[in-house]
Design a protein that fits this description.
Blueprint (H helix, E strand, L loop, with lengths): L2 H21 L4 H12 L4 H6 L7 H31 L21 H13 L5 E2 L5 E3 H4 L18 E2 L12 E3 L5 H9 L4 E10 L11 E11 L4 H16 L5 E8 L2 E10 L16 E10 L1 H7 L7 E8 H9 L12 H4 L3
Parallel strand pairs: 1-5
Antiparallel strand pairs: 2-4, 3-4, 5-6, 6-10, 7-8, 8-9, 9-10
Helix pairs in contact: 1-4, 2-4, 5-10, 7-9
Amino acid sequence: MSADESATQELERLLAEAEAALAQTRSAQELERVRVKYLGRKSRVAEVLKTLGSLTPAERAEAGKSANQFKTALEARLEARRKALEAQPAAALDVTLPGRAVVQGRLHPVTQTTEAILALFAPLGFEVIEGPEAELEWYNFDALNIPKDHPSRESFDTFFVEAPSPQPAKGKLLLRSHTSPVQVRVMERRRPPLRIVVPGRVYRPDPLDPSHSFMFHQVEGLMVDDRTSFADLKGVLQQFLQGLFGPKTQTRFRPHFFPFTEPSAEVDIACSACEGAGCSTCGRKGWLEIMGCGMVHPNVFKAAGYDPARVQGFAFGMGVERIAMLTHGVADIRLFFENDLRFLEQF
């Protein structure tokens, strides 16, 4: 018997074997296993074809013809079996079997913290407003009394967008570096009194480390009428912080500088880890910085079309991730953005 006759007989034997295996299949998965076994790159047929290298050209041609016939025949039988399986009626549902548990999702911890913040301002009459993340220089800087030569306007502190500005007179397009531009946008459209809180993403080209990210979340607040005072600002923020961190939370206001408020302050809370005694969490200071605030600068009112002689207002802003880190004892901001379910399922 010649080598090509031996190969042809082996292919015929494999076809019969494959047909017997197909007859036993009961699912698409079993059908796929048969296909891989007899037609895959490392299949039984491939092993047979590797032995044809020693044949003469005429013998190889005959063996190749047999291999093609085998492939065509088996593919036809596979397709016929697939259709037969699809035509079979579905198995009856056994209602006595226990059901499959449905995995429930949950809100991201940053979303949970944002909603908790907004919920505390709602009873105080603050309305939730959102604004564009792709912002114009005028709203992000000029209208907020930020000087032309301020370092924050440089590319190392702001993401500028390489796209034509929709309003060239108001500067280049950029990714907003804070949520404060929404203050001006709202004041342009509406007259006082105003009470708004503005949640949203902001962007700064900061290096990634345990306390910095190039994208994070803020909540901005603004209140404007004809008699709002710094005492009102302190009262609102103290009520908010005690609602968020507990009724015994101690707060302090430290003088600071922001271009868009005057006077300005940074707000601290007593460290919850050491109750103000000083520990590694608070850098041995006993206090944790939580937000910035102040009375709206007259130049901001002018930019928005308000008369600073007739209105007064305060503004404040906080980082959501920072509050989430303090609330939950998270030491690295990057954990909020890595989508590790082992971390996220704890909240």
